[in-house]
From TrEMBL:
Name of the protein this chain belongs to: Uncharacterized protein
Transmembrane segments: 34-56, 68-87, 99-124, 130-150, 162-188
This protein's UniProt keywords: Membrane, Transmembrane, Transmembrane helix
Length: 196
């Protein structure tokens, strides 16, 4: 059954989290049900924008269509799963296992809004609505904002010092970079094989 209640409160709560209002995390549907709702709704809401962007950027002269789609799809799924899996282990290690679900549910909804905004910038740039310089400036701005949002969320929900929250922010940023690099390598290697 489609959980529209989780969707409504998840997005409303994420809107508050963007304003650094931690009460947004307490609005969201919690527990295991809340986790799965945040994961599949977040991924499902962002997916159309992501697919549209990779379709616009697809160059049939350079890439094999199926390999391009599969590589991006695999990395998209990995991007949604990698951080929650790592955070579950980290929460156990720092003796905050009870805080994992509230944190990751809020993180997933926050990521949903952030990724939609980030992809809209990419789409505006790819379609020529805004220039590369403006898109880059907006993207960097949203990146810094997301680091502040995640750090604030980690500090408040996990009840950890600022230095530990910064560590979580660095981990999230590092994972994003690694996944982006892996996607590029897979897609480029497919393009090189096509050219050969």
């Amino acid at each position: 059954m489609i959980d529209l209640r989780a969707l409504f409160y998840g997005l409303a709560g994420a809107g508050r989290l963007i304003r650094l209002d931690i009460s947004g995390a307490h609005m969201m549907v919690g527990g295991v049900r809340g986790f799965w709702s945040s994961l599949y709704w977040g991924a499902a809401l962002v997916a159309p924008l992501y697919l549209l962007l990779i379709a616009i950027r697809f160059d049939p002269q350079r890439f094999d269509g199926m390999r391009y789609l599969v590589a991006h799809t695999e990395m998209y799924i990995l991007a949604w799963l990698a951080f929650p899996i790592l955070m579950e282990r980290i929460c156990t290690f720092i003796e905050r296992p009870g805080n994992f679900l509230p944190f990751i549910i809020a993180y997933n909804w926050l990521s949903c809004l952030y990724n939609m905004m980030y992809l809209l910038i990419g789409l505006a740039q790819a379609s020529g609505m805004i220039g590369w310089e403006a898109a880059s400036s907006l993207s960097v701005g949203f990146l810094f904002a997301s680091l502040i949002w995640i750090g604030h969320l980690a500090k408040k929900i996990l009840h950890i010092p600022l230095s530990a929250a910064v560590g979580i922010v660095v981990l999230e940023l590092f994972l994003g970079i690694i996944i982006s690099m892996m996607t590029s390598l897979i897609v480029i290697s497919g393009g090189l094989q096509n050219a050969g």
